[in-house]
Amino acid sequence: MKILVVGGAGYIGSHVSYAFADRGDEVTILDNFRSGSRNNCPRSAGIIEGDIIDRRLLETVLSSEWDAVVHLAALKAAGESMEKPADYALNNIGGTINLLNSMLEARSPPLVFSSSAAIFGEPIQLPIDENHPKQPQNFYGFTKLEIENLLDWYGDLKGFRSVSLRYFNAAGYDNRIIEPEKDPQNLLPILMEAAAGMRNGVTIYGDDYDTSDGTCVRDYIHVSDLADAHVLAIDYLVRGGPNAKVNLGSESGISVAHMVREAIRITGVDFPHSVGPRRPGDPAILIASSTLAKKLFGWRAWRSDIESLIDSTWQIYGKR
């Protein structure tokens, strides 16, 4: 199949691009390379440098025939989104509208959209399934939810076919990726930077939560498991499966303190770490239900144990 991966040079996007290339699909990556790297793209992939804000470019690119499109292009820092909502609205929502409209004017291939667990906000029940109330606590999550709503309308009004994949905490690396994520915001790469001497230490934000060790618990999923889900979701749409919104997680939780301890053990580096105050808006526990992904796609997270997550990430950072 001919697959267009929009945002295919980023951290998750490069893994998704490899997943399609590995099975022999013809992959083309569209990326502005502000956070992505050409060095992380499969050598067999075609490269188009450009931005989803550029409607004319999208119209030109979509005028070719594609079997499917994967959309991962977004600004994604939750904290920054609260400070720069205009940037996030323009890029995430405006850019997606450009993409969807360009797709409608073309042959309208099926779309897999990179959504986020940030659409749910504070959990009311655990594990979090697809029907959990959607009350995002940051503007980034709001943009993802708005795009899901757009896809509902485009599906109802224009027959637009899509699957939205709601990621929980992506982590880990494929060893073919050369350059680590730029300016990481998530726990594991921050720990690896500390172990590699790239930062002075790590702060654990709060140790008085109602969890087994007092620190926050999150559902970490290996990025290669996420990449597999994109391939399976495209196959599902190509087979004629109806539009869907699907949670992707490991269905198990790892606490911050446990991740820190295991990072020190696996890397062999006892990097400095300390406890600071809680961050506003951090839920105590976030764990996904991935039952629907298993049912629709036959997907499972088989690389997402803590050892694989940390070891595969250290393989990248330990070389720096």
Structure description:
- It is a single chain.
- The chain is of the alpha/beta class and about 325 residues long.
- The protein folds into two domains: about 200 residues, Rossmann fold (3-Layer(aba) Sandwich), CATH 3.40.50; about 110 residues, UDP-galactose 4-epimerase, domain 1 (Alpha-Beta Complex), CATH 3.90.25.10.
- It is about 40% helix and about 20% strand.
- Helix 1 crosses helix 7, helix 2 runs parallel beside helix 4 and helix 6 packs across helix 10.
- The longest helix has 21 residues.
- The protein is globular.
How large is the count of helical segments? 10
The major beta sheet can be summarized as: 7 strands, parallel
Spatial extent as radius of gyration: 19 Å
Stretches where pLDDT falls below 50 for ≥5 residues? none
Structural class: alpha/beta
Portion in helices: 25-40%
* CATH architecture annotation of the largest domain: 3-Layer(aba) Sandwich
Q: Calculate the mean pLDDT score and round it.
A: 96
Strand order of the largest sheet: 3-2-1-4-5-6-11
Indicate the CATH topology of the largest domain: Rossmann fold
CATH homologous superfamily caption of the largest domain: NAD(P)-binding Rossmann-like Domain
Structure summary:
It is globular, with a radius of gyration of 19 Å. Helix content is 38%, strand content 18%.
